[in-house]
Design goal:
It contains 13 helices and six strands. The protein is of the alpha+beta class.
Length: 479
């Protein structure tokens, strides 16, 4: 392929050399070009039309063949970003997209390592170029409506890659694979949260195991709303699950299954270390009680501040206002009392929740201290923990399957890659122009040939030159 690439360059240099030679000969004989002689020369040139046509056709075929061979050997690769956020200039995780990442140094280093290429990163970067279809358009940066975001990128590898014993198409294939891995690994949806870990679950306290399983379940539940908001009607091909139905299953797991397990533990007063667990509950209640007293103190302060307001200061004002439907109504303004009342309500609700937690902890500690649980109850609780673990693992697998199916269908691999077809018409026109220039130059040389020979014969011979010796030899022979 190096020879084919060099052939195109050689043909171009040949065409330049012919025109330089034509120009040189023209300036040599331009003074001896009367109109009648030029007409005679054109008449003689008519006899060489067939020869010019043959040479022109051969030059056309050589240019076209070399151009097409280079295009086929070093095609352009089109990378299309096939996800919704690409139209907004973003990666799949909604961070800002940069086309420089396609030919970034880490990506090129991985391409070299994967293909075992014998060239440096700088040399590979010099072989690759990137462009977009929007580069040819003239956009007015001052007008926001004319600004566009490209989701298609053309990547070209120079045919000079042959100097490094590398095929350009192989480089493009490696680049597409590596950049896809870079995009998916660094900027795509991160579903590692769906991989649940149950390390140490068997050694936990029975009630702590319930809290741990609840935390793992909410990890799944909190991951689903993102996809549900994008496509609430998406359904898996096998089980017919939707994001909403899976979320409901997780709610049932937390509200029903885990509550039943907790009731079993509290009913039997199960604990692995009774004294340690009771001490933990007492310490936890002491901390919760401190937070409750803070909330109640904040609540009392705001109630006291409300009582200090003057009656005239607490009167509200009605302001004429229009709503979204352009309907007239009287809007009530808020004063400081309203804000104090809202804050007092929030602190009271927080204190109430803390009190409920304290009562729950006290009840659990009392049940644990009531008496020793039977071995049968412990075995039942252990079996239940294993069942809950398996059920939650199954929910995790369903979430991963549904999310994976959604990504495969909606994202379609994130990137689509195809290779551009060689421009046959463009190469043919280019070769035709070169052939026409070649034929014109060759015809000009044929036309000037007799005048150039006459010019050489009419030049005075130089002293000691071969012309003078030749004339002297002819004179001696005639004598």
């Amino acid at each position: 392929m190096i020879v084919v690439s060099a052939a195109g360059l050689a043909l171009t240099l040949c065409l330049v050399w012919m025109y330089l030679r034509l120009v040189r000969r023209f300036f040599k004989v331009k003074a001896a070009l009367p109109v009648l002689k030029v007409r005679d020369g054109l008449g003689r040139l008519a006899g060489t039309r067939a020869r010019l046509a043959v040479f022109g056709a051969l030059f056309f075929l050589a240019c076209f063949a070399s151009g097409m061979a280079v295009r086929l050997w070093a095609p352009d690769m089109l990378m299309v970003l096939n996800y919704e956020e690409a139209a907004r200039g973003q990666y799949p995780n909604a961070t800002r997209f940069s086309e420089a990442g396609i030919l970034s140094e880490p990506v090129l280093e991985r391409v070299i390592r994967r293909g075992d290429l014998e060239l440096t990163t700088q040399e590979l970067a010099g072989l690759l170029s990137i462009s977009t279809p929007l580069d040819a358009e003239k956009l007015d940066a001052e007008q926001e409506s004319s600004l566009k975001i490209s989701t298609e990128y053309w990547v070209h590898c120079s045919e000079r890659a042959a100097l490094y014993r590398v095929r350009p198409r192989l480089v493009l294939e490696l680049l597409a694979d590596v950049y896809w891995e870079e995009l998916v690994g660094g900027y795509a949806e991160n579903d590692s949260v769906l991989d649940l870990s149950f390390d140490g679950l068997e050694e936990m306290e029975y009630l702590d195991a319930k809290d741990f399983l609840e935390m793992q379940a909410y990890k799944l539940k909190n991951y689903l709303p993102t996809y549900s908001s994008q496509s609430s009607s998406f359904r898996s091909a096998d089980g017919g699950e939707t994001f909403a139905s899976l979320s409901k299953k997780i709610d049932n797991f937390v509200d029903i299954e885990l509550e039943r397990y907790e009731a079993l533990v509290l009913e039997n007063g199960l604990s692995r270390e009774r004294a340690t667990y009771q001490a933990r509950m007492q310490f936890a209640n002491r901390l919760l009680d401190t937070e409750r007293m803070k909330d109640m103190a904040a609540h009392d302060v705001r109630i006291e501040a409300i009582d200090m307001y003057n009656a005239y200061m607490t009167r509200f004002v009605l302001i004429p206002t229009y709503d979204e439907d352009r309907e007239f109504y009287m809007s009530k303004t808020k004063v400081g009392v309203d804000y104090f009342a809202e804050e007092a309500k929030e602190h009271l609700e927080s204190a109430t929740k803390l009190l409920e937690e304290m009562e729950h902890d006290s009840y659990a500690a009392a049940q644990v201290g009531a008496g020793a649980a039977s071995s049968q109850a412990r075995e039942q609780a252990d079996r239940r923990i294993q069942e809950l673990k398996e059920e939650l693992t199954a929910l995790s697998a369903q979430c991963r399957e549904l999310c994976g199916a959604y990504v495969r269908e909606k994202r379609d691999g994130y990137i689509q890659v195809c290779y551009g077809a060689p421009p046959v018409l463009g190469e043919a026109l280019d070769a035709l122009v070169r052939a026409a220039l070649f034929t014109a130059a060759l015809g000009g040389l044929y036309l000037l040939e007799p005048f150039y020979r006459e010019h050489l014969r009419s030049r005075p011979p130089k002293a000691g030159g071969w012309r003078r010796r030749k004339q002297r030899d002819r004179g001696e022979a005639a004598a």
